[in-house]
Amino acid sequence: MQWMVKADGISKSYVQDADGRAAPVQVLLSVDISVGTGEIVTVFGPNACGKSTLLRLIAGLEPPDEGNILVGGKGPEQAKVGFIFQNFGDSLFPWRRVIDNIAFPLELAGIPLPQRRKATQEFLDTLNVRLPLWAYPYQLSSGQQQLVAIARALVFQPDVLLLDEPFSSLDFRARLEMQARLLDIWNQTRKTIVFVSHDLDEAIFLGDRLVLLSERPARVKEVFDITIDRPRLHKVRDTETFSALRTHIMQRFLESGTS
Amino acid sequence: MKTRVLLGPLLLLVIWSIVATSGWISPLFLVPPWDVAMALLRLGKTGAIFLDVGSTLYRLGVGLTTGIVLGIAIGIAVGYSQRLYSSLEVLIDFFRSVPVAALIPLFLLFFGIGDRAKMATAGWATCLIVLVNTTYGVRNCRIARLMIARTMKANWFQTLLKVVLPDSMPQIVAGVRTALSIALIVVVATEMLMGTKAGLGKRIFDSSMTYSIGDMYAAILLTGALGYCMNKLFVMCERRLVHWSGR
After folding, report:
1. Is A48's pLDDT higher than 90?
2. Could you tell me the pTM of the whole model?
3. Strands A192-197 and A160-164, bridge-based pairing
4. Is A101 on the interface with B (CB under 8 A)?
5. H-helix or E-strand spanning residue B194
6. How many other β-carbons are positioned within 10 Å of the β-carbon of residue B238?
7. Which residues lie below 8 Å from residue A64, measured CB to CB, with a gap of 6+?
8. Given an 8 Å threshold on Cβ–Cβ distance, is B247 in contact with A94?
9. Which residue of A24, A82, A225, B139 shows the fewest CB atoms closer than 10 Å?
10. Is the pLDDT of residue A62 over 60?
11. What pLDDT shows up at residue A20?
12. Is residue A80 less than 8 Å (CB to CB) from chain B?
């Protein structure tokens, strides 16, 4: 398989005390993770184990203490990364209309207003995404707002899409809808996706592979292949394969220590 | 609903009329409302009051504009650079604590007794308020938005213009709203203390000195109305300008 994201032996620790006197907290310990081109890898682990840190390192927002990360053969700083935060309210631009939020990367690239609005509309058509383009983000439902954030990241034509628990603040129905929408979008674009989740069902439903992280300091406990046919609908959650996989991963999740 | 809004002012007028005509208070201190209205009409007929309002507005406008521009510019720089912030924090807090009135002699010294001194004083007061608010706004820019700009390879100028500045806008605008009333206070006070040919402060001061009490109340009322309208107008603009604020 051709790797889009390749991280080898990455470690990261943080100094919690501003004066640097307290001992640094080890967040990631020698984590290996590889994501094939066009693959969806979900990262699942205990709360606050370092899942978000892992994403930030892959995005090049922070450097790792040790180890090496390549995104599309480049260093993460050079690579094009689309990042989706859990809190869409903080990551969207409320002073811009929806269409101008999505067109933001095109604006940075210097494309004039009429062209970039047209390009954005055409792009959304190819994704089959309908949004109230002339509204402001705060006028949209939570699910729609997150969809705006995803569309904005995709317009950027990123090498990889990184999603940090993007649906965890949505209500149950909206979460199911958005999971299906994401798979639709993936089906159209075949983007490489790294999806961090603290919801095991979600991680199984979306992923081609699932990376199970341990308690902090996070190591890779195990990587599971999810061999459920695509396109997936929510009813695959009721199948024997799905529940067997869930039981198996749950057992490994509850075991203490690493392999 | 609408009529109830008028109840308070109406009540004040009634009490004022009763007190002023009862003989409890000497007409040297308080005249009835209709005398004030007459004074206002007379001042309007000669055009003197328009010159006063115009002069005050002119000083206010120039002082405010200069103060806002400087305040935003310095505020961005201080908010952006941690180093600049740590080195200027004490200084800014100090000057913010010095009452502007205490600096009037200083401004007289530097700018003379003309309009420039009055504008500079108002500008100073405005600048400090806007500066502090801008700094606060810039420093509290949502980290997620900054990170989005960074992952999308925005350069620092694009980040400033398209993310940091609009993100701090509600804070900056709130600062300007506060500065508006403070600057009016400052301009009127300097007109009283520094002396000038025309201006609402000058009118209030002179008429009180010469016991033209009707004129004095007319000018005070007008100054109040000016401040009230400015604030109302600004709040209306604010709602459109930073429509996302608080959502």
Report:
1. no
2. 0.88
3. parallel
4. no
5. helix B165-194
6. 17
7. A10, A11, A12, A28, A57
8. yes
9. A225
10. yes
11. 62
12. yes
